[in-house]
Fold this protein.
Amino acid sequence: MPTLLLTDIEARSPDLDELAERTSAWCTRIAAAHDVAALEGVLGEWDEARAAVETWDAWVYVTFSQDTRDAEARARREAWDAAQPRWTELMVEVKRALLEHPLRAELAGRVGAQAFSLWELEVLAFDPRIKDDLAQESRLTAAYIELLASARIPFQGETHNLSALAKFRQDPEREVRLGSERAHWDWFAQQGAELDRLFDELVALRHGMARSLGLADYVELGYRRMARIDYGRADVERFRERVLEEVVPLCAELRARQAEALGLERLMAWDEPLLEPDGNPRPLGDHDRCVAAAQEAFDSMGHGLGEFFRDMREGGFLDLEIRPGKAGGGFCTAFPTHRMPFVFSNFNGTKGDVEVLTHEMGHAFQSHASQGLRPLDYIWATYESCEVHSMSLEFLCWPHLDAFFGAEQAQRFRRMHLIEGLCFLPYGCAVDHFQHEVYGRPSMTPEERHATWLATARRYLPWQDWGELAYPARGGRWQSQRHVYRTPFYYIDYVLAQTCALQFWAWAERDRSAATEAWVALCHRGGSAPFQELVRSAGLTSPFAEGCLGDVLDRARAYLEL
Ligand code: ZN
């Protein structure tokens, strides 16, 4: 078969009027269906239509991110952002019709109960009354993203955007690290009033949506929108408590050791990204060399990863180089009509390039492995499960990192990866805890929110000291965490997933091929089950189960000789 090229993807702008007509026809047929075969027939047609819209959505997002200065791409994105709530409304109509059907149990027997659980939450999270609010929410989050993307920060005689400035955060020279952090936070301080205003409006808007749906506050709606099926707020709260008890002391120990290694009396916030005095490992060579190393690594891993990476590379489904006008960050999306994912990143010559590539390739491989699953809802899992796929591949790649770094640097990279993976757990919990406070008390003033972040950070990150950097020292740190503005409550997902990824790491240290096989099988299961069920099916312990953290922490301590 000839290689599929990105330019072969013919995405068509969805005709929502036509889709509205088809939706009412599907609903009529569902209501009239007397057997499961008839329902499955409608489901098949609806899946096909949804796949075409999802491909459009991905294509709009990808082409805009590849060049944010392209006026046509921007207009397309804005139009699609504005149209989205209507598409959601149409999908909810079909979901409701399926949920209300007397043959629901029989259909669930055929396609799995998970689809119904997802649809139930999606129906509960939407009402035509909040359609305008949803469109306004898109506008506000887009304004936040564009504000951050617009940053032009002078540093060391050059002007940088936020992603380019970030590479100085791990510079071996302390003055450079401090200087770049100062430049970063000075910019945030200048934008402080606007950042506060946008967030204030977002909180009020989200609280209002929750009230319109008859809920007390946004927390419950946030959980519905994140499609949390087999756990709830109380489970997350207990999990965070365990991180406080078990992980925070370990991280405090790691930070103290880091200060000692760096020869510092006191580790300041701007020292945290530098783990060793000689500097963090950097991938050898340029962008092409890094891609070639990735090819070598995936070829050695087997399970079709190498062939898959080659197809993505040759088809133009990787966009990894840093370019003017390109959006920041990294992500993976997919074109379901062509059963092909797409990976986006901004290589800047730091170890982060390898971390992002192996992470996003985990998402890409999973979505590719699940492309044949139906209903379409199963191609991706819910977020916390998706992050298990990606964060685990970062660890499963360990034996093949020499290709990127050379043997000596690769060994240092592994230790740092583990240390940073552990220290991420309390940070992620702090972000999650903060959001529960924010949406639980929606009338807080911006000053009270900053104070709340400070109090939360003091519990989870007691070693963190911002010293003379006034803006984060007063509690503004959370405003650079994009998820807090864009996707409320999407953060504990990384912490839950990292807890699972660390289990894959520990397993691979004992039996690499069994761990890799279990990961591949998990990828093939896609989103066909809720989080804890997927985790258990892979032979892992749920993060909510007693003793889950203890086991991985013991292994990590042994590996790091603590
Ligand atoms: Zn991810």
Q: What stands out?
A: The mean pLDDT is 95. The pocket of zinc ion is lined by residues 359, 363, 387, 390 (CB under 6 Å). The two ends are 52 Å apart (CA to CA). Residues 258 and 275 are 6 Å apart (CA to CA).
